[in-house]
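subagent[fold] <- orchestrator: predict structure for attached chain, return C-alpha cells only, no commentary.
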Amino acid sequence: MYAEKHDFLDMSTGVQQEDGDLVVIFKCSMETLIKTFGSMMAPPACFQCGAKSLSPTENSSLEKNENPVSAEQSSHVDEDSQLASASLPLKKCATCQIALYCSKLCQTQHWKDCHKSLCSSMKYLQLLRELDFTTSTVMSRKKCPPFSFGVV
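subagent[fold] -> orchestrator:
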C-alpha cells in the first residue's frame, strides 16, 4: 500500500508502488502546492491577486453571482485597461471548479503561472482539505479510504 524505495533490475533506483490507484502525483513544486493549498484554506479570494469577497463563506464552493470582489482589493487592470469591477463575483475555474478568479486576466495569468499543472489534481487537494487530522488515523469526513503521506 505504501510507496517504497526500490532497486530495479536495470540498476536504477526509484519508487515502487503496488497499487497505482492510491497514488496522486502533483506536477508542481512543493512551494506552489503549499501556496495553492493555502488559497483553498483561506476565505474566498481570487487565487491570483488575492481580491477578497465582501461576505466570506465557510467553504470555498461558491455559486455564480455570489460574493462580489472587494473594491479596495481589486485594483489591477484588465485587457480593456479598466479597473476590475467591484460588483463582479468570483468565478470558478471551469475544469476543477475550485480555483476562484475575479477576472479573466487573473485566470489567464494564474493558468500560466501554476494552475495549468495543478488543475487536474485540484480534486485531490480538496480531499486533503476535508481530512480530519485530529485523530491518529487520518480519515476523510466523506468516508473515503484513509490517506498516508510520504516524502520520496
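orchestrator: received. Logging for downstream: Residues 24-140 form one domain. Confidence is low (pLDDT under 50) at residues 55-75, 78-87.
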